[in-house]
Every structure is written in structure tokens, then in C-alpha cells.
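Q: For a teaching session next week I want to show students how multiple molecules come together into a single three-dimensional assembly. I've collected the sequence lines for a complex. Could you give me the predicted C-alpha cells for the whole thing so I can convert them for display?
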Amino acid sequence: MGVDPLREIEDPSDLRRLPREALPGVAAALREELVSVGAEVGGHFAGSLGAVELTVGLHWVFDTPRDRIVWDVGHQTYGHKALTGRREGLRRIKRADGPSGFLRRVESPHDVFGAGHAGTSISAALGLAEAARRLGEPRRVVAVIGDGGATAGMAFEALNHAGHLGSDVRVVWNDNGMAIAPNVGGLARTGDVAGLVRALGLAYRGPVDGHDLSALVPALQQLRDASGPSLLHVRTRKGCGYPPAEADPFGWHATGPFEVAGGTRGGGAGAPSWTVAFADALARIADRDPRVVAITAAMPDGTGLDRFARRHPKRVYDVGIAEQHGVTFAAGLAAEGLRPVCAIYSTFLQRAFDQIVHDVALQDLPVTFALDRAGLVGGDGPTHHGVFDLAYLRAIPGLVVAAPRDENELQHLLATAVDCGRPFALRFPRGAAPGAALDPEPKPLPLGRGERLRAGSDAAIVALGKAVDVAREAADRLACRGISVAVVDARYAKPLDHELLWDVAEASRLVVTVEDHVRAGGFGSAVLECLEPRRRNLRVRCLGIGDRFVDHGDAAEQWRAEGMDVDAVVRSVEEGLG
Amino acid sequence: MGVDPLREIEDPSDLRRLPREALPGVAAALREELVSVGAEVGGHFAGSLGAVELTVGLHWVFDTPRDRIVWDVGHQTYGHKALTGRREGLRRIKRADGPSGFLRRVESPHDVFGAGHAGTSISAALGLAEAARRLGEPRRVVAVIGDGGATAGMAFEALNHAGHLGSDVRVVWNDNGMAIAPNVGGLARTGDVAGLVRALGLAYRGPVDGHDLSALVPALQQLRDASGPSLLHVRTRKGCGYPPAEADPFGWHATGPFEVAGGTRGGGAGAPSWTVAFADALARIADRDPRVVAITAAMPDGTGLDRFARRHPKRVYDVGIAEQHGVTFAAGLAAEGLRPVCAIYSTFLQRAFDQIVHDVALQDLPVTFALDRAGLVGGDGPTHHGVFDLAYLRAIPGLVVAAPRDENELQHLLATAVDCGRPFALRFPRGAAPGAALDPEPKPLPLGRGERLRAGSDAAIVALGKAVDVAREAADRLACRGISVAVVDARYAKPLDHELLWDVAEASRLVVTVEDHVRAGGFGSAVLECLEPRRRNLRVRCLGIGDRFVDHGDAAEQWRAEGMDVDAVVRSVEEGLG
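A: Of course. Below is the structure for the complete assembly, covering every listed component.
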């Protein structure tokens, strides 16, 4: 290819000026660009490669952004970003100075509806289509959803509503047989997308080869010209065009930088992650307790359950991107005496809030929730921060809510959760764990008891989870300045260790709380509630995330900006005392 | 019918001792009993009438409770209760001294999985079935779900997972064409349950007439003897056997007491409800603002949107029991400039928590949430109390959260919500509104401003929503005892009126908060957060619901038991000052 055809495409309107014969060349160049970007900075990779022709075809056939393309999740939209003026930015993707790894309305008029969680696109598109009808706008609206994303119940709800309304809404069903991991579900077994779609009252077209633009473009044109709710079934290969990713699309769903030739990747050296610590602790607990089974909502890798499954292959359920079902399914298992552990990211467990209340906690069933990626997650940004869980969970009667400060506390808290026979949520953050030495066996800890890690007479810092290390470092630094500060690892956000907190509060004039969570209704708020009845001459300062969605960027920088880092804790103690 | 055959049935095992020929007689007697109970005490009526033969057939064919019947929602289970030892109790249903109106594990070994929200039964049944397989128990598990309940996405998630696992789980699809109101959805249009079910990998049987025991019993026996995931499609008529209910199954979904002959009902005299006040206010706002559309998740009656639709028939969407989709659909409408109002009970909006965060608030879209039945709801009990919304909503950045003290404030807050262009949640309780006079026009109020209703120098009571009246009455009573108490209607839980609260706090030694919500993370907790930075010599006492699920019973009694009534507020002020 002599000239780079992407250079001429600032905007999809430039693409649409090209003849149809030029599209394969554009697709090839786009694929090359995505491989080059992936090799340089990593990111969500295999999904975008599989959607290259689809992306080119959609922007060529539809009059974007006047016509609305609603992408699901965003894992497959690097090509879309490149064709909509963000090609250069892709090399800074997920950095504070670069574009989001997902879709954001504020980023581009081409991101007509934001995403980051799966399964929302058909609902949003139906809303856009109904609005267009009401407003008399002749625009077309297309949702692009993967077969993985479509395991989410809300996608079914949306298809069913579309079939009811009869609106002119279009759906492209991007069927690559995968969620992040190979897709699950009866539908994935039968492959009868047509049967499902027709039963719900939509017109079905396809399947069409999503890498053959000579078939895909006419199919998209037919979809464009259809009226009523219509679905086009497109078959693609995740990772298409980059042989290592085609051979292992699961492994290449997301990647760090790599060498293009051969696909050699840096590998995950460095400190073990919280995820691995969780998986290994769960495996040890399951070794001795046959009641333990584990549940993932289509994220066996992200949650560490693939690692757990190496030791206990018959004790993992992948329910699909179906957090609601997963939680109630777990409640059913627990009702018969098993001890299910739902390993779901904090942000995705939001999907199952009602099921936690109605099916688990109200029935006091022993389900453990392992909330990975709790707190600020850095580059994945606001769709993925797990910063509401303490608020939404601690309101639920009887639920235990805990967070470990290191891997050793993690294994003991997980044993506590499985042993205690109560609904139990355990949150831990993204990334590297501190590297604590492990006791030989996970052992249950007393429920609702925190730990005073150091004594102090001037003030006390009460922290939870990852924030405990911040508290310790702040106390060290304050000690050098002659300020004596106690440090408490609360361990539980609920039930709080009232005795310990009262002890600490009575011994000092100032309590500072630190948490990796929004302040509204969070851990600090729980400490305020706890101390209120008995406090005298006490000040309390609560550090945590303010009332805003935190953008993507570096996690340490996010902690600093939100006033939760060591400097902020030191400052808060000094100001509180001064 | 000479002898009452129900008298001999203490338990389903007694039923199973009867010959098959006796079942129609049992069904007739059961129906007569349900009509008699309904006439005497009201309750969920038409659904249970439609499930009489199904209930008799299931308990005769399956070895309950060793075999597990998992009923969805519970609206159809009065017959099940009567056959499982709770016949006499039905006359006290929903009262504190009677059985729940729904299903509760603690109430009977026959309630193998609790319910109250729709769509959970297949998930739970799949969990029970997998547990049986793991434990080597030969029991059978049957979920009984209505076609209305099956519009919930989690039911689809569960069917899809069942088709994947291939477990021996059985589903009875009780198809009466209704949710509470006539059912919606493309599937309801096509009627192709077989196509849907087979696409998801389950065996389909039926349809069978669910009122003809000679056809139903053999079909249930075949279902019992099936292996792998199987679904039996049963057609029933909601209200069957009681002509007024058959003629108007929507109107007779739930009822108060009535006269059996002719079906004359007492009618809803008395004070207008919050629901009516909401519907009328919304209609007035929609008169002048063409952007307003309304969304219900299968509850046009309960939310008042049927009333709204009389004035604006083309501006209501019933999305089915699909709160997740409904909220994201609303976000799509809002993204194009409309002003959707989602009218969803507080407890059911829990289903859409993630969509509020991810699709509405993160994108700062102007969707209004009208949360009816917020707070303690009385007879419907713990599955239906709306007592977590302040906690789960106020954690969400940028969301406005408000609650009116009367109908007039309701209309103004609703106008504020629609006008302000921000995500906005408005909660109001079940039942009769105070009967306040209405200003001629709904007018937007300033955002985040409360109202000082009376001045006072000794203490201040800060209350939200329905609790404001409690606060005023308590202040009156305290005034008689020489204690001068300010009363503040906070109006907003978020953003709080910091200035007003600080003013009030500086003027008094004691602040008492009152709310119709759990204390953990609720309104009082928000007040604590607000006052903390500037407080001096101040005590704060937060009244609200403790860390427990509140049983069904009388709402006023629930307020008393939770320490939120006038007596409790008076006591709290006196103790706090003393």
C-alpha cells in the first residue's frame, strides 16, 4: 500500500467520499494501524480487530454522526475512534491526556451514547430512535452489540420492547462466539439467533461474513433501508488479521505492549495482584470446604477464577454477562447448603443490587461477594471505578462488608466470609497487592473487629482496605514532625468495630478517615454514624472521593487529585489539630 | 359440594392421597375459598384465581416440599398457601399477625425461595437444581413464572444459562397474557414462546390449557419425568372462575374487600394518594412541556401513569418488567432532548441502579426518577419497602435527590426536576397524601434549598418528605412542654442546603434528623457529613430504620417500632437536651 488511506480520513464524511472499491484498502490500513497502536500502548485489542470491516462499513453506509451508531461496551471501538478524528490520540489511550478506552459523549459527537458496561446499546438506541420519531428527525439509529454483550438480560428486555413498539431501530449482532472469554449460554449452543430474534418480533437478516466487505456493505445497506425493528447477524473473528490474536482471542482481548512480529509480550512480572491473591486463597479454602463453588459473570480471567479453575475445574460457573442471574443463582445454591462465592467487579455488581437485597440478604443466605476492582481503577475510568459499593452495600440489613489491607488479611477475611454463614461482601482494589507474607492457612477472623496497628495520642487515622497503607505512611511522616497518631485498620465497614472506634475517639481530639470510595454514604460516613452518640470534643475529617465522576488516568494521580494520598492525610491531620 | 375437601388437606401429602378424579373438586373448593378470602380481606386476587388448577396439579404431581416449587413474585400463591397449611391465616394476610402476601422461606418449608419482585424464579430454581445435582439429591425443581415476570431480563439470563448447563431444571410458563396490566413485548405479540425457548436450548412442551386438569396433570407428569432443561407452556386466564375478575383481570389484580355476588367493591374514597398527586402534577407539566414523556415498568396503575395517559395517551411507554432497559431507554430519549420521567417504585428501581449510574448520571442526562412507595409500605412488607434509595442514590455524583412533604411541594419539585436539565430522583411514600392545597401552577424551586418551617432556640428537627409532618407535630408537643424547637424541611437529600443546616446548627445545641429510610448511609448520615466541618458543641441524633428488614404489618406501627414516630422524636429531643 503506497499512500496511507487513513491519512485522508479526518472524519467519516471523508470515508464516504471514497468509492466502495476503496473500502478493503481502508480496512487493511485501519487494521495495520490498530496493530501498531496495540503494540505500542496495548489496550482492548482483539475485539477492535474483529470489528474493522464492520466499522468501515457502518461509517460508509450510514450518514454518521447524523445517523446514530450506538456501540456496546466499547471494547471494539478503537477503529471507530481512529475514523472519527481520534487516530492520533489512540497512542495515549486511557491516559489522562488521551481518549477514554471506552465511549464518551463528551469526547466526540460520534460517541452518541457512552458505554463501558455491556448490554446497554439496544436500550439506548431504542430511546434515540423513539426520540427521532417524536421529533420528526429522519435519522437512522443502529446498535452494535456482541453476542457476549447480548447475554445481558437488559439486551433481551430491549429487543422485546423493540419488537413491541415496532420502531425503526436497527441492531447489528456482532457474533464472534466470544465475550471476553468464549461466550456461554444456550443461545451460543444452538446458534439460533434467528429463532430468538423472530420470537421477539424483529426482522432477522443474515448471517453475513463480517470480514467480507462485498457481502457486508450490501447487507448494511439493506439494514439501513429497512423499516421496523431489524437485526443483522454478522459473523466475525475476534482478533481477525493478527495471527497471534486470532489463535488466542481470549488471551488477546486486552493486552500490554507487544512486538508485532511474533506477538511477544512483556508478560506480567512484578508484584502479584489482588486478583491472584484472591484466587489462590479461594482455592485453598475450597480444598478443605466442599461446599465452596465460584461464580463469574463472563470474566474468568479478570476475576482470577480461571486460575481457581485449574485446581477446581468443576466448581466454577460462568453465567455470562448476567450479574442479576448470577447472584440469584448463587442464592439458590446457598439455599441448599452450598457456599457460593460471586466474583464480580465492584462496578458490575451494581447490576445485581436488587438481587443482593431481595434474594440474598433478605433471606440471610450465605453468599460471598468478592468485589475486585473496588475503588479507583485508573485507566479504565469512570465506567469502571468501583467507588459506590460501600454506600450501596452497607445500607443492606445484615450484610457484612469488609476490605483487606493486604493479601494475608484477604485470605483470612475470605475464610471468614465462607465460614460465617452470612451474606458477606469483600472488596479489594485493582492492581498489585502489597506483597505481604501469608500465614499458612486462611483462618476466620472475628466478625466486626478492626485492628489498632499503632497507638497515638494526638489523633487517629481510621482507614479501610488499601487506604490503610496510606494511613500508616502518613502516621510515620507525622511522627517525624512530633505528632503522635494512632492508626486503625477498620477491616469491616459493616459491622463497624464500635468499641475500638470509641476507644480511639476518646483517646484523641481528631479522627481522620480514609477510604477508596465516594465520601457520600461511604466508610467515613459510617464512622460518623458510629461515633455520634458518644462523641465529645472530637473532630472528624473524612477523606475520600468527592461528588464527581473521576476521569480515566493514572490511579496514583487520581488518589492525589481526590485528596486521599499520604500528603492529603498528613495535611488533614495537621489542619484538624491546628 | 357436600364436604369441603380442603378441610382434609393440611399439607400437600394429603392432596396426593386423593385420586386424580378428585382434583377438579379440590380446585373448585380452592377457588371458592380464594373468592371468600378475597371478599373478606382483599389482596392479590386475579393471579391466584388463574393459578388454581396449576397449584393443585403441581402439588399433586410433585413430591413437595422435597421437590422444590419456586414461585415467581408471589401474586399467584394464595392457593399454594392454602394447600400448605396456611389456609386459616389467609384471612389475616399482610397483617402483622398473618402470613406475608408474598413468599417467605421462614414462613413455610413449602416456600423454598422467597419472592416479591418478578423474574427471579428461574435463576433460583437453577441454583437449587445445580445444588441437588452436586449433593446427589434426586429431587426435582420447578420454577413457575408468568409471561409478565418473564419480561424481566434476568429470566432470560437464567433460561440462557439453563440451556447452557443442561441441568434438570423445569419451568412452568404460566401464560395469561398479563403482567399486572396486559403484558407487553414483542414476544407477547408473536406468541412464539416455543421459538424463544428452543433458541435458548431448552425443550419446549405445550401449550396446555391450565384450567383443564385432565390435560394439565399429564403434561405436568411429563415435565416431572423429563431430563435436561424443560419448559411447559400453560395457558391460563387471570381471574378465572370469578366473572367480575375474568372480565377485568387488570382491575382485579389486587383488590380490597368486596361483595361476592356482583363484585361490588368499597371504592377508594378518602384522601387522594401521593400517586394521584404525582400523576396529576406530571400531566400539568406535560401540558406545557412537549418534551415530557413517561415510562413505567409494567405498572401503569400503581404509578398513576394510566391516569396520566388519559390526558397524554401517546406519551407513556410501558416497557414491561424491565427496569434496567427502561432507565437506559429513558437515557436514550434524554440524549436527544426529551425529558423522560421514569415512574418506578423505589424498591423496583433497585433493579436499575447500574443504569442510573452508568447511563444517566455519568452522562449527566436529564432523566427524572419518580420513586413511588418510598419508605415503609406496610402490608407488602420487606420485599416492597423502599428504604434504601437515599443511600444508593445519594452516592451517585451529580444526581439530585429530593422528597416532598406534601402534594404541593411534590408538584413544584417535579417541575424542578423536569426543568433543571439534570438527573433527578424524587421519592414519595405509599398511601394518602396530607391533602395540601395546590398552587395553581407547578413552579420550579431553587435546587438544593430547604425550608425552615418554624424557628426554635433549644433544638432543631431536620426532616425529609413524609417525616416533616412528624417533625412538626413533635415540635408542637415539645412547645407545650416549654421546649423551643426549629423545624426544617430539608426538601433535598442531595444537594443538602448546607447554609440552612449550618444556620440551624449554630443556633441550637441539638439537631434531630428524621427520615423514612434506613439510617445507614441515609439522610441523617448526609446531615452528619454536612455539619461535620463546622460543628461545635452540637449533638446530632438520627432517627430512621435500624439494620433490619422490617416485616409486613401496619405502616404506622412500623414507624413506631422503628422509633420514627412523633413520640420517638419528642423523646429523642428531650433526651438529647437533658
